[in-house]
Design goal:
about 130 residues, Rossmann fold, 5 strands, single chain, about 20% strand, alpha/beta
Length: about 130
């Protein structure tokens, strides 16, 4: 099974850093510059195993993208990871409540990235693709 991830962040440097880490872990990464771009790439048969969503983006936020994806039955089992600088526990609770499977706080490291991927896939009853 191919490991494909969509990385959504309005900051190019954040996309570059996260994609580099994911590719070192065997993922094929595609990027989206904002929520609207992400939804267009996720429409229909997208073939992604995972979406990493920045929360604070101009236009459509990561929360709005998450809600839109979760309202579509085709994306019910798509693991979603919130990728954010916000680390307060009450914010984590609200992110989980709207449909995120895991939260990865910036700045990131490989161990935290792998832990968030494991949590996101486990939330749907399966393990991270090899």
């Amino acid at each position: 099974m191919k490991k494909r991830v969509l990385v959504v962040d309005d900051a190019e440097i954040n996309r570059i850093l996260l994609i580099d880490m994911l590719e070192r872990d065997g993922w094929e990464a595609e990027e989206a510059v904002d929520g609207t771009d992400a939804l267009s790439k996720l429409h229909g048969e997208h073939g992604f195993n995972l979406v990493m969503l920045d929360i604070k983006m101009p236009g459509m936020s990561g929360e709005e993208v998450c809600c839109s994806l979760r309202s579509d039955p085709r994306n019910a089992a798509l693991p979603l990871v919130a990728y954010t600088a916000h680390a307060l526990e009450e914010e984590w609770d609200s992110l989980h409540a709207i449909g995120f499977d895991a939260i990865l706080t910036k700045p990131i490291n490989m161990a935290a990235l792998k832990e968030s991927l494991t949590k996101a896939f486990k939330a749907h009853g399966f393990s991270v693709p090899e």
